Amino acid sequence: MSQPLLKTDQVLTVAQMQAAEQALFDSGISVDELMQRAGRGAGEIVWRMAAGHKVSVLCGPGNNGGDGYVIAQLLHERDVPVTIVAPLEPKTDAAKKARSLYKGKIAANAHGLSGAVFVDCLFGSGLTRELSNDLAGLVDGLILSHEMSIAVDLPSGVESDTGQCFDRLGEYRCTIALGAWKFAHFSGPASTQMGRLHLVDIGVGKIGSGAYLMPHARVSLPWPAAHKYTRGLLAVIGGQMPGAPVLAAKAAMRAGAGYVKLFTPEVPHSVPASLVADTQALDVSLEDPRIDALLVGPGLGLGDNARERLRLTLDLQLPTVLDADALRLLDYAMLQDAEPETIVVTPHDGELRKLCETFGVAADCKRTRAAGLQAATGMTIIAKGPDTTVHGEGERDGETILTGLFRPASSWLSVAGSGDVLAGIAASRLAAGEDPFDAAVQSVWLHGEAAHLAGAAFTADDLAEHVSQAMAALR
Predict the structure, then answer these.
(1) DSSP for 266-322?
(2) What is the pLDDT of residue 1?
(3) CATH superfamily, region 233-473
(4) Which CATH superfamily is domain 7-207 in?
(5) How many CB atoms lie within 10 A of CB 372?
(6) FRET partner for 11 with CA separation of 20 to 30 A, picked from 19, 176, 304, 347?
């Protein structure tokens, strides 16, 4: 079940954000007014977090620095002890104006400065190069000498469109996005260092960016007259190693499909009683016309037999999830005999690079690799990791979505077998009748919710056991 998108859900590149701001200027809003909106909105958050304790604001020469002067003035007006550190003079007219309106303390350096809160307004989303050694050392020193650090728009030293870190990035308690989310908030190495995320709405309208922070997924109940086949039959294709496909099937049985069968060369010892194991030749097993979706890859192996099992699966041209070994075996010829628009792939970073090599996709970061792979093949991509993103084609509230981004899930998901569980969930949602993009989005949410419910230091088996509870939480 889809949820409507709000204008604050959109994720923008630097160029898109600049265009959105220009649209506001064209409507009659001045640069100074927009800076006041952004700075005072961020200042409200800083004020609450500081709770009256000492604040240090590092201001750079551009408009991000101007936002810092506005933040500091708001704190000064409310009698919060605040000091601005300004190693560089303002260069933009708006930043100069904001500085002229600030009535508190300004220091040229941070020698001996400490406090409760450090606010980083040195450089924002327009940064495209690493910081000088002096400025990098200044940021590091202020992080270390304060109890908590807050970044405004982005931490200094982060490239907005890729999430790459030009410099070593310290831990921030929170990051306050201005106007719209940026890709670095949810993807790339920097996304794991930003802490809690807040968004200040400055009036930016919808611009059809194609990338959105995905709203909390919803999963519908089966209809009252449903039976196991109307809820969907999923076939999990086993192979050389029995454990991974059994684990994926356990997750799939709890994610909505009415019937899950394991097509395996021999029955593993660990098969639960509720999972049907079919040991016939795969070409015979695949003749069942009731099959709605397939999962192949976990435990498949990489030999000739595995390649043949993958080929037989793809030849069926049914909604399919490819994971693990299938991603290493997949090639151009196999995809030509399939229906790529019905396929969901779930690569981690290494598998994503391998797929990009296979299909001739050149890109400079994980997000653009996944987007390029989707465009080149037509498959829906779940680019998994601490910054999981979904790339395909979906629709919410009349908006076309090409890239879905998510708030970070539990770091306890970094456990062996977690990817098999995700693949099983995604395949189950396909079998239940969801289109590939929605199945992918729902699987990421269910995976994260199951991790939340499982608590700390769980195993992949624990994670699979909590998928049905996650389904209930997402209703």
Answers:
(1) S--TT--TTSEEE-S-HHHHTT-TTEEEEEE-TT--SSHHHHHHHHHHHHT-S-EEE
(2) 47
(3) Ribokinase (3.40.1190.20)
(4) YjeF N-terminal domain (3.40.50.10260)
(5) 18
(6) 347
- Contacts made by residues 302-305, CB under 8 angstroms, sequence distance 24+: 302/328, 302/329, 303/240, 305/239, 305/240
Mark the ranges of the chain whose per-residue pLDDT is less than 50. 1
Q: What is the pTM of this model?
A: 0.95
Q: Which two tokens stand for residue 237?
A: 């294709």
Residue 107: phi and psi, rounded to 5, are -120, 145
- Burial degree of 6 (CB within 10 A; 0-12, 13-18, 19+): middle
What angle do the packed helices 349-358 and 366-377 form, to 10 degrees?
40
Name residues whose C-beta falls within 8 Å of residue 164's C-beta, 6 or more positions apart in sequence: 158, 188, 189, 190, 365
For the chain, give the number of residues: 475
Q: Is the dihedral of CA 177, 179, 180, 182 positive or negative?
A: negative
**How does DSSP classify residue 158?**
B
Q: Residue 271 corresponds to which tokens in the numbers above?
A: 């098969």
The domain limits of the chain are 7-207, 233-473
